[in-house]
């Protein structure tokens, strides 16, 4: 049987890190602001998609992952570190 979920049953391993990093930014960045930045980069991601990513309910493509890392100014390794 194939496993395409994280050990904790989430659909991604970056969502918790995206939420933590986003909330730690100064000035604060809302889910809508993050979605707007992704849309500027040409990705079809809205505020609800950010919420679902952070809650582990949505898969994240590699293209989205790279864009998130660039916008949040962090490494891909930090976003995909399941230990955070």
From TrEMBL:
Any Pfam family the entry gives: HTH_3
Organism superkingdom: Bacteria
A molecular function (GO) term: DNA binding
Domain called HTH cro/C1-type: residue spans: 18-79
SMART domains from the UniProt entry: HTH_XRE (SM00530)
InterPro entries per the UniProt record, alphabetical: Cro/C1-type_HTH (IPR001387), Lambda_DNA-bd_dom_sf (IPR010982)
Identification of the protein by name: Helix-turn-helix
Species whose genome carries this gene: Hydrogenoanaerobacterium saccharovorans
């Amino acid at each position: 049987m194939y496993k395409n979920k994280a050990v904790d049953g989430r659909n991604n391993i970056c969502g918790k890190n995206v939420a933590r990093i986003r909330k730690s930014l100064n000035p604060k960045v809302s889910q809508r602001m993050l979605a707007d930045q992704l849309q500027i980069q040409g990705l079809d991601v809205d505020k609800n998609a950010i919420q679902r990513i952070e809650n582990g309910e949505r898969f994240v493509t590699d293209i989205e992952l790279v864009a998130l890392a660039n916008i949040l100014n962090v490494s891909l390794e930090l976003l995909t570190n399941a230990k955070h």
